[in-house]
Write a structure and sequence with these properties.
about 425 residues, alpha+beta, 2 domains, 6-stranded mixed barrel, 9 strands
Length: about 425
């Protein structure tokens, strides 16, 4: 163990000495390694951070759930979207929620969701264009809604009686009332109707996958919503039913179960097409994973080219180093140093050179992460897995780059090597 530590320390000192004595040559040779590690860590860190953000946003839509709507999701937009095929389909109805619960054996929770926009008023201040969400009892069992301390979620009595109470988004509370922490208990006006705020939703931040903008919303019970808006039209907003599968049931099985249930509910004959859409939320997660896989691959290709260039640079340093230390190598072998010791010393020195180049790349990635985190709607973090990957790449690259020079050094004739000047 002591011998191994001695070899490691000597190799590390020789790597630092090489950088110190030949700053320009070593710096230029390690530039490829630095840029390659910069690309690897930068791409992996950015993609991982973005992937966690997107997957978190998708999870907030309802994990392992299906959305019943008249619109098909994920078919692209613009002129290619066959909107004329779906526009005349019937919108989901509140009565269908109970029918789905009765007919579906795989559904755990079923919730109706409708939305419109409204103008809010508090004292003398108006806030227009705010989304108003009407929901049923199971909504918070499918969606994740956290309430700021001091407030509460809608109660069972609120849903049954259609009580004039609401929970509001964090941004709405800040803009309308001035403080999200003290908004609970305040009375506001929603399109002229007096409503008591019973809770404020924890700040959500910008979502990359659409869904619900909870920060700029007002959530009320479906019964109260129906007394204010036309629930069959939704005023151009959303009108859908969310269904979450039971534990252990894949969403794909739930889709087929719901298809049979909905065809019965809407009394469709075997020859008639579905007049509803069953949108599997897990599908978006799989599509996101595929996209990130392509981005990761592109990053690895760019990084790989840079690392190849860096590897040639490190190999060049090691060839020059072996030539400069020929007499020292001969002297070591003359006093008993084994071939394996010489080989390991040069391989470790090559690996340490790559690690030093990688640390410089990591330093620049950390600066980039701080800059991007300040401008992007999600933080960039460099996880331990990414750092370990970068270290392994540096060691492997160092060993590959230094293997030929190290073998040359290990096989030197000590007598000839000592005579070399």
């Amino acid at each position: 163990m002591f011998k191994l530590l001695t070899i490691l320390w000597n190799s590390f000192k020789m790597a630092l000495g090489e950088l110190k004595n030949n700053k320009l040559r070593s710096g230029l040779s390690l530039l490829g390694v630095t840029f390659g590690i910069f690309c690897v860590i930068g791409v992996l860190a950015t993609v991982d951070s973005l992937q966690q953000k997107v997957q978190g946003d998708l999870k907030s839509l309802g994990n392992n759930s299906v959305w019943l709507d008249k619109w098909e999701y994920g078919q692209g937009g613009g002129g290619s979207y066959p909107w004329w095929k779906y526009i005349n389909r019937p919108t989901p109805k509140r009565s269908e929620v109970e029918m789905i619960k009765e007919r579906s054996s795989l559904a755990e929770y079923v919730a109706h969701f409708v939305s419109s926009s409204a103008t809010l008023n508090y004292k003398d201040f108006d806030l227009s264009g705010v989304s108003v969400y009407g929901i049923t009892e199971d909504f918070n069992k499918i969606q994740t809604i956290d309430i700021v301390e001091g407030g509460r979620y809608l109660s069972e009595a609120d849903f049954k009686r259609g009580t004039a109470v609401a929970i509001i988004g964090n941004q709405v509370a800040e803009d309308l009332i001035g403080n999200a922490q003290t908004a609970a208990g305040k009375e506001i006006s929603v399109n002229g109707r007096r409503v008591t705020v019973v809770g404020v939703i924890q700040k959500q931040g910008q979502s990359f996958v659409g869904g619900f903008d909870y920060d700029n919303s007002v959530i009320i019970a479906y019964q109260f919503y129906a007394s204010m808006f036309n629930v069959n039209q939704g005023f151009g907003g959303n009108n859908l039913i969310m269904i979450k599968a039971k534990d252990g049931i894949p969403s794909s099985a739930l889709v087929e179960d719901l298809r049979g249930a909905m065809r019965q509910i809407r009394k469709l004959s075997p020859t008639q097409e579905d007049n509803f859409a069953l949108n599997d939320i897990n599908m978006f997660s799989e599509q996101a994973d595929s996209l990130f896989g392509v981005v990761n691959l592109a990053g690895w290709v760019i990084a790989g080219l840079s690392l190849i260039v860096g590897g040639f640079g490190v190999a060049n340093i090691m060839f020059v180093t072996v030539r400069e230390r020929t007499s020292q190598i001969g002297l070591k072998k003359a006093i008993g140093a084994k071939r394996s010791t010489i080989l390991i010393e040069f391989l470790l020195e090559s690996a340490f050179l790559c690690i030093i180049g990688g640390l410089v790349g990591l330093f620049f990635v950390q600066i980039l992460a701080l800059v991007l985190s300040s401008v992007l709607p999600f933080p960039i973090f460099i996880g331990g897995r990414i750092l370990l990957t970068a270290l392994i790449i540096c060691v492997i690259l160092g060993v590959i780059s230094g293997i030929i020079p190290a073998f040359i050094a290990a096989k030197m004739n000590p007598v000839k090597a000592i005579r070399t000047t």
